[in-house]
């Protein structure tokens, strides 16, 4: 307890005192130079910005990106995907598609949960049935899954109602498709499951002190020995970016991540290592198309035309943001906007004409967003939008809330007008649409305006052939832009990862899951 109090005091003092400049230097992607042989031992101190919110660490309910970054250390999926997109063994050592609608997986015989009990086919059956029964987006991605059966202790058969373009991507998703212990999950109260964990991943959860630290320890039963090399990881929760930088400089943490790329370049100029990440964070704003002024498609289209996205990216992200549609433009599967994208090009005169046609004058539209320090980099975006929209007679009412409250409104479907939910790229591009196009979930408030997009969404999930999927994705993005079912001003790098040269063997992954921490080690 004394250590925790001292840690809190240090963070508070640094937050108040640090006045580091933001001047950045041109930088190349940093990469740790690993030793010939990994070194076992040591605890990595990692400074992060927020803790998990809605759903906590429940593998079937967690919805925040902060949760995914912890879950990927503790739980595993049947398969994983390499940087080239290829499927690779995970908990399953082998698999085969036995027909267009059936798959068979065989588990590793040495896979165990962190309490030493074996991972069995019954745990897999239970986990997928849990996914199918939740309100999480993966339920929609598994919509064609009709049956999952244990054929023996290690073999599982999946049967679909029709060919699926998303099934294998969900099975291999580090952000979903996670396998939990059936015995542990059923015997643990729901609220406790959100603060504890029982997975088969390289680490196990040992402690979560609210707004202070989430501690992981090496899983002694991990099947891929001698990994992990680290004895543990402490994710130190430090909302202020300048405070995280100061802790890194003084050696109190070994790694941090930052939303501000200028700060990242500053850190690299000081001798720290910085990973290269793609623009996989879309600043998505969900639209309530069922009530209020945004129920009128002319108003939605006017709002979209009134946004000068290039100016927003230049002013709010210092030029680091890139034009993007729903799927973040840094995702290899993404379709980039162009001059033909409906309602995307800046056209204030067109916006005024649409508002006049709608019979609307000086309309007020609310924008709910996360006002926490960890999301401060987004605030300037909303302020620039507010100024731009005022030029055409739209009053954008900015409504900051704690991030946890934002997620509760999204998951419960209680938001109105606009609500900003920064979304990372997903294992399958269809998942970027799941929050607002999945039938029957509360966060879908597209109403009748989303009818055609919902049909295209269903087709996208059903088609597996790559070229056909890309064509459908382009068609879906066009329909979403035409009806303005979401607003996406731009996409930026999700996080800049910065680390000390003492962390060896580490490099970021495309989707910023940090799963390669299990492959890394500490050097003196």
Automatic annotation (TrEMBL):
Keywords: Signal. The keyword Signal applies. Residues 87-440 form the Solute-binding protein family domain. CDD domains: PBP2_NikA_DppA_OppA_like (cd00995). Pfam families: SBP_bac_5. It comes from the Bacteria. The keyword Nucleotide-binding does not apply. Gene3D superfamilies: Dipeptide-binding Protein, Domain 3, Periplasmic binding protein-like II. Residues 1-26 form the signal peptide. This is ABC transporter substrate-binding protein.
